[in-house]
Structure formats: C-alpha cells, structure tokens
Amino acid sequence: MKRLFLSVCLSVFAALPSWAQQVPVSQAEISLSFSPVVKRAAPAVVNIYTRTRVVRQFNDPVFEMLFGRRFGPRSREETSLGSGVIVREDGIVVTNSHVVEGADEITVALNDRREFQAELLLMDERNDLAILKVDALDLPVLNFRDSDTMEVGDLVLAIGNPFGVGQTVTSGIVSAQTRTNDDGQVFIQTDAAINPGNSGGALVDMAGQLVGINTQILSRSGGSNGIGFAIPANLARRAVDSAAAGALTIAQPWIGADGQPVTQEIAESLGILPDGVILSDLHPLSPLAEAGLGAGDIVLDVAGRPVRDMVTLGYRLGVGQLGERITLGYLRDGVRLEANVALIAAPDDPPRNVSEIEGSNPLRGVVIANINPALAQEEGLDPSLDGVVVVQVKRGPGRRYGVRPGDRILSINEYRIERVDDIATALDAAGRSWRIAIDRGGRTLRLAVDG
After folding, report:
1. Range of the domain at 372
2. 16 occurs within a structural domain
3. Active site residues
C-alpha cells in the first residue's frame, strides 16, 4: 500500500510544471516554511519615499486688507511612502504610479539599508504603473513569471512596507484571475493581506518569481479585508520594455473594435453557451477587421486564454509586443474559427490638428482636436467615434457655458462638424447667434447663445 501511495505521489510530481518541481533543500522547506521563498524574494523589494513641495497661496481679500501682502505664498513638504520591486540588476524598479505621482524627490531604500535617489522613466496612470531607475549595479532582482499561468488557489506572498512599519510578508492564495473594473484595468485578486504602504510591492509565487504588483484593496475601514488586487506581472513587464525603448507610457496594442459580453439572453437567442464577447462596431483599420472578423462574431479566447469582456480582450492583446501576431479564437454562425491578428499601435490618422478656438464666440478658450484611433485610445473614448472632441477648456466663455473635456461638438447652427476646420467655418457664418449641439457620454446637449 505504501509503495502504491509513493508511486502515485511521484506520478503527480512528474506531472507538475518545471517551476513547481522543487526538491526541499532545508529543514525550513521540509517543515513547510515560506522562509526560503522570502529569503530569495525580499531583498529585491524596496521601500519608496517621496517628497513633494506644496505651495499654498492666500487669496482672501479681507485677510490682505487687514494684514497686507507680507503673508505671501507658503510652502510645505508632503511625504508619502510605498513599495517597489527591482526587476533588473542595473537598477530598474517597478512601482505604482500613484506612489510617485507629483513627487519632486523619490528615494528608494533597499532591504540592506542602502538608499538611492531615483529617476522617473515612465508613468502610466491608466495602468497605475511607474518605472524608476537608480544609479546602482548588481542589485538583487525578482524575475517575472507569466502571470497568466497562475491559477485560482495558487499560494502567493505579498511583500511590502505597510503603514511604514518596515518590510512585511503576508501569505494567501490567488482568489481570482483577470478581475476587471470600470476604469478598464485588469487585476489578480488575492486574500494575502495588503495594506496602505504595500502599494507597488511584490506578489510572488512559491518559486520566488514576481507574479504581480500590489496596487489596491477593497475595504470600508482602510485595512485589509482579504480582498486585495495586484497588477499582473505580464503588464508590468510591458511597462519595463516600453521604458527601455524610451517611451513615456506603455505602448498598448490597438483593438479598434467595440463589443459586449455574451449574456444568458444573447446566448439563448443564438443557441450557444454564454461565453465570450460579441463584436459590434469595428473601425475600418482595426487589426481584427484586417484578420477577417466582423460585427456579430464572438471572440472566445486569445492564445488559448479565455475572454469574458472587452477589458479582458484588451488585456489579452495588450500584453503582447507590437509587431507580433497572435491567435484569436472566435465563433461565427456556431462554427469555431481562428484568426491570426497583428498587434499594431493605434493609427494617428487623420491628423489631430489640435487647435484653440479664438474670437468673440461662446467657444473661445476651448481646445479641440480631430478624433483618431490614437487619441481615442489615450482619452478612453469609444473607438467607433469620429468628429471633433474637446481636449482642454481654458479660461473663457467656453468654461463659463460648461463645456468639458471629452465633449464632442456635433454642430453649430445646424452646420455639421466633422473636422476641426469646420469649427472656424461655422463660427464665421454664425453672426451673433449660436446654436451648438454637443454629445456628452451619448446624450445630446444644446447650447443657445444670442450676442
């Protein structure tokens, strides 16, 4: 019986992936301690301290009348802390963008108490990632693991500097994969305790490999409730690659399509299971359209990994390198097909022609641009939109009348606006009376102004 049990155990071990086949080499490992993993991973997790100079200006006329202007602007320093991960021996550090946002000075403190001033190479607020560089060599590093190979139930450790108490390690499991939010972000969910100060720290597997960058928690109290989120290591690696190429933000492959999850109602109407994303609008230049997909096709997976919504589809394609091609599985008329999709950057065509509206009119001070795929991706706009969008509102009538960035100008005095140049033509012909139609989030707003 013992021989049979041993044989079964050896068979199970042989079936494990190579990264999981680790023979215990110490008493700590034999006693199921996480100590060997921590010793391997912890030196590459750093504390990050930032200083920001904040200037406060008194704008109280009564105060100035009583005390004069000798009480001018006052400045003070604000400090914050977080964590980071060294991923290259030449001093490349990954952290969250919210840890270093607006900082005038960034200090990276190593586990061995050495401290370095850091240079900010890349800031990507959309993905909450920042890449730093410190002037040092032969640093301890964490190697990236393909985070998509993590499965629900896998053991993980969270390493960081919660509440500024010093480096701390907590354990847990992967609670869910590819969690998404309304901002279009994708996370690994874990029940390993993550608290303020852990942001930017490491989520590692039992081989001491980096699987995620800890970023946020779901909590009413501000403390850990066992629902924490980490940015997948695959996306963090893309940020490092983008910074190495000199980019200031992550170069995201472009989908050029819109769609929605296949709900139970949709699935019943089509006679299929509720799985995947059904495509609706595709841009003429979309790489999906180029690969032969069209409206009504249902995307099931990318490189064999499932797709549940448009955010997941964007992530699956987004962790690939520009210029690569990737296999996409989809359903058409009940038949499963595959397409080879090129990963391309969003085209910056037609030219944006960013312009500020001038003259005596209700839109003076409004900065506008032609919508193109690159701008739509940067601003989080519907990829199927075209026309003219507001990108900034400076001081002037436009601000007073409530025009906002993201508004799309549809028409002026019934003159349809398709390009930036149309704005000047419409305003010149308007005289002293303006009827302006604006699209805001799918609602049409109408502004009427008589001069």
Report:
1. 355-450
2. no
3. 98, 128, 199
